[in-house]
Amino acid sequence: MTSVSERGASAESIQHHYDVGNAFYSLWLDESMTYSCALWQGHDDSLAAAQARKIDYLAGMAGVGKGQRVLDVGCGWGSTMRRLVTEHGADHVTGLTLSEAQARYVEELGDPRLHVRVQDWADFVADEPYDAAISIGAMEHFVKFGWDRSQKVAGYRRFFQKCHDSLKPGAGFALQTIGKGNVKLDEQGLKETLFIMEHIFPESDPPRLAEIMHAAEKLFEVEYVVNHREHYARTCAAWLDTLRANSAAAAEITGAEKVAVYEAYLEASIRQFQLGHANLYRIQLRRV
Fold first, then answer.
1. pTM for this model (two decimals)
2. Domain tally, the chain
3. Quick one: residue 10, left, alpha or beta (phi over 0 = left, psi -120 to 50 = alpha)?
4. What is the mean pLDDT of residues 244-248?
5. Tens-digit pLDDT profile for residues 71-102
6. What is the model's pLDDT at position 249?
7. I want to staple 215 with a disulfide (CB 3.0 to 4.6 A). Which of 47, 56, 157, 194 is the partner?
């Protein structure tokens, strides 16, 4: 059992962000309610197409195929879960989230192949090993800001051990996460980082690539790593444009002050990904 002191962001911190309201997020995300970096192709690409392409890309990384059981750690509003069963032939997808609002959204889809749990990954125990796993935009919340390097690696190691225990030997695992950049923060970048930690993602701290690699040793073989930070800058820009276009409706739901905070957060994120203050890693792993 993982103690409270060894866990990353609490359920309360996760809900602070993701339970702002499904209606609010629906105003600026694409119709699939995908809240993570898209995979863009060409200047005329749409956000919806880029998000579907991203899910397909990660499904390919994980080797998801017909009749499989798949684990989705940090399932959000279930867009990946849905696409795995409708487009990739999965028979069963278990999604883990700490957000009650997200879980209700998935449950209301009424698809018996989708099984969502409001549960910390640290408390999850698989009833039988899964054929593949995917985790998108969740690892950023697995350690707390202020932990030293050894604490962080130990926290990520516990996550990889849990995934190892939940997967069949040789199973694929696709991981997408924001990572700390290798470009030194300027004064504005430091202010933006502190703003995001205080107002958007309290208790969270994204990993460094070296920490991920260290934590996965002898549990997962690393097959492929790519940094798509420019794709996240473009994704955040698309979200910001849509949020601004719907700012009046958004303010009616959450209040103008909250909308302004989210606009500032998306502006800061665009700059951080453009400058390399933050990276976006897509990692293909294989359980050993």
1. 0.92
2. 1
3. beta
4. 98
5. 999 999 999 999 999 999 999 999 999 999 89
6. 98
7. 157
pLDDT class for 222, splitting at 50, 70, 90? very high
User: Taking every pair of C-alpha atoms in the chain, what is the biggest distance, in angstroms?
Assistant: 51
* Residue 136 Rama label (left phi>0; alpha psi -120 to 50; beta): beta
Look up the CATH number of the domain holding residue 59: 3.40.50.150
Average pLDDT, the chain: 93
The residue with tokens 């606009």 is 263
Q: State both tokens at 65.
A: 């195929």
